[in-house]
UniProtKB/TrEMBL annotation, chain A:
Top-level lineage group: Bacteria
PANTHER family the UniProt entry points to: ENERGY-COUPLING FACTOR TRANSPORTER ATP-BINDING PROTEIN ECFA2, HEAVY METAL TRANSPORTER
Membrane topology: Peripheral membrane protein
One GO term describing the cellular component: ATP-binding cassette (ABC) transporter complex
Protein name from the UniProt record: ATP-binding cassette domain-containing protein
SUPFAM superfamilies given in the database record: P-loop containing nucleoside triphosphate hydrolases
Organism: Oceanospirillum sediminis
SMART domains on file: AAA
TrEMBL record, chain B:
Protein's membrane topology: Multi-pass membrane protein
InterPro entries tied to this protein: ABC/ECF_trnsptr_transmembrane (IPR003339)
Lineage: Bacteria, Pseudomonadati, Pseudomonadota, Gammaproteobacteria, Oceanospirillales
Record keywords, A-Z: Membrane, Transmembrane, Transmembrane helix
Compartments where found: Membrane
CDD domains membership: EcfT
Family, similarity comment: Belongs to the CbiQ family.
Keyword Transmembrane: yes
Name this protein carries in UniProt: Energy-coupling factor transporter transmembrane protein EcfT
Membrane-spanning intervals of the chain: 20-53, 65-82
Species, as recorded: Oceanospirillum sediminis
Major location category of this protein: membrane
UniProtKB/TrEMBL annotation, chain C:
Descriptive protein name: Biotin transporter
GO CC terms of this entry: plasma membrane
Molecular functions (GO terms): biotin transmembrane transporter activity
Family per record: Belongs to the BioY family.
Recorded superkingdom: Bacteria
Annotated InterPro entries: BioY
UniProt keyword annotations, A-Z: Cell membrane, Membrane, Transmembrane, Transmembrane helix, Transport
Amino acid sequence: MNKPLEKPITQVTKPITQGCSIHLDEVCLEIEGKQVVNKLSLSTTIKRLGVIGRNGSGKSTLSRLLSGLIETSSGHIEVAGINPFKDRKGALREIGLLFQNPEHQIIFPTVIEEIAFGLRQQGQNKKTAEQNALQVLASFGKEHWQNVHTSALSQGQKHLVCLMAVMAMKPNLIILDEPFAGLDIPTKKQLRRYLDKFSGSLIHISHDPEDLNGYEQLLWLEGGEVAALGRYEEVLPRYLNEMDTLGDSDDISDLAS
Amino acid sequence: MISLTSPVETRAHQWPAGLKLGLLCFVTGLLFITDHLIFHSVFLLAIVVLYALPGRAFFKSGWQHLKILWPFVLIVVLWHLWTDELQRGSIIAFRMMSTVALANLVTMTTRLSDMIDVVHFLAKPLYRSGLNGRALELAIALVIRMTPVLVSKGQNLTWAWRARSTRHSGWRIILPFTVLALDDADHVAEALRARGGLINPEK
Amino acid sequence: MEKNIAYTALFAALIAALGLVPQITLAFGVPITAQSLGIMLCGTILGSKRGGLAVLLFLLLIAMGLPLLSGGRGGLGLFVSATSGFLIGWPVAAFVTGLIVEKWRSASITLVASIASIIGGIIVLYAFGIVGMSIVLDKTLPEATALMLVFIPGDIIKAVIAGFLTAAIAKARPASLLSRSAKAA
């Protein structure tokens, strides 16, 4: 079970660049009797934020809360100046979400349809959406993908299509929920290059700190609470240390209460 | 997956499922042959009493399941008010409520495992003509296992839609959903084969 | 053999899931659930035998007391209620739908699947449903038909959607379209 951790750092020492602001104030989320997020409070404005933690620490849930897909049980959330759950139109404008498994994210049979979808939902008519989708494909050098069937793509290619579909909507913030899970090393490297092109803010959730190399700030979640929030160089060693220690334990045997 | 068996223990929980089901068929048949308003009124009352006996929780839960009948009760009552045959209409309505309530009572007092045993018992004659008993057992277990898995995948797909749209997802989600189910079917088939397949040593 | 069991069971689970994921409705203003669409797809994708069996399996589990009908309903009460005819007709509908898709190969799959869904999923199904309703509500067949007429337009739309979905599945997973593959193991 949870060991008591050192007092969490919740202050950013120096804001590095202006980015998207997120404010969480005593956010709680209860799912089927279980306290998944427990009085989570954090306030930060950052271009590149990494979120780390063990599986089950609440990272995915946080991504759904930040993108407004689920509602808090209590507490206050503000992302990019809006309440993403209540203001869905604003959320669609400002925030993009990349899910962990592209199989659960790709809805349409062809690449062009998948990318144009978000644009049509934003109000563009069919022709405009298609043109803009083609432009997005072109900016990634993938015009030849437009009529490819999504089910014919490789794992990494599917991830890329999802990324393009989200970026096409031109959000200011993209939240990525373990986007590189299960990919091989070259694919990860290539996808990371595409990701780095994004000029807006990123919140990147991963349980593998390698993915977050170069991110200014790290948020470490543990049991639905903030274990630490601070600079990459400060939080990462503590995180790795803790993970190592936990690896020596046998908490895999513990059943959920 | 939680079945509709009531957690409130009653004496009926201990009775053999086959007996309850047989009685249910018999009584339901009886209800359909009888045409007396008094009989149906008394019978319905008796069933309400049966529901009330195990306590408030049981009664409330039973009521939840019967509430869904209301549109049909309404149709019958209005129809027969219109044709001035309220007595006939009451018989129909009472009979419908009684049969559904009685059948629901059996569901609430019979455990899933007991039901599965009855199914196997009834399927015995089919085994001789080729139905694989192990296959049936496996199929039942698979549906119970995979329904929550598919539900959560469906939930993820609706979220993926809502992340890019303020509109209702509607039927478009069903395509990727079905593809996921087909892929799961392939994986499950593979897993079955890898664990020995359907060789049937017991029968 | 394993493939048969897996496909049958997974489609039974899919029918259940279509009724249990709250947001999957064919809302044209009215929340019509997608479960009956799932019945049509059992026929058009799995074919007559496996499709019929999948729906039969689904009904068996409901009868045993699992809350798999849309909205979390289940239990034996459903089989004596006014709509019980429809429940009993479901596996037959899937079977007939599947049979048409298997035999009629000369037209586009979209057309075949849509028409098969109309014949199986509406004409055959409503026959069962109307008979059942006339028994329980003690009405004549024409009277029971009149009560059900209002649902038919919605179901026709469902059948057309089933046609398009089947065609899309045929493209995405041609090997899984058991209704059109050679006799599978």
